[in-house]
C-alpha cells in the first residue's frame, strides 16, 4: 500500500464554507472514493488555508484516473474548484502533487 500526501491552498475567504462542505460529503462521493481505491483518506486544514491531504492506495495514478471517470467526481470538483488558490485552470484533484516521503515509522 502506498502512502500519499499532498498540499493545496484553500482561499482564506472560503475556509468556513470549505469546512461545512466537508462536514457533509455526499454519500455517493464517499462511495466512489472507496470503490476506486482511496483508503484511509484524510484532509487536514490549517487556519491560513493550507490543506494537507493523506491517503493510502495501491496505485495513486490508477485511483486518480478511476475517480476522474466518475460522474460524481466531475460534479464535486466543479463545485470545489472556486475554493482553491493557484490551480492554474486545473481541477483540484488534478492539482494534487504527491510529496516525497522521507521517513516512515513502521
From TrEMBL:
Top-level taxonomic group: Bacteria
Top-level class of the enzyme under EC nomenclature: isomerase
EC number(s) from the headed UniProt entry: 5.1.3.32
Pfam families in alphabetical order: rhaM
Signal peptide: none
InterPro entries linked to this entry: Dimeric_a/b-barrel, Rham/fucose_mutarotase
Keywords: Isomerase
Record-level Gene Ontology MF annotations: L-rhamnose mutarotase activity
Gene3D superfamilies: 3.30.70.100
Protein name, UniProt field: L-rhamnose mutarotase
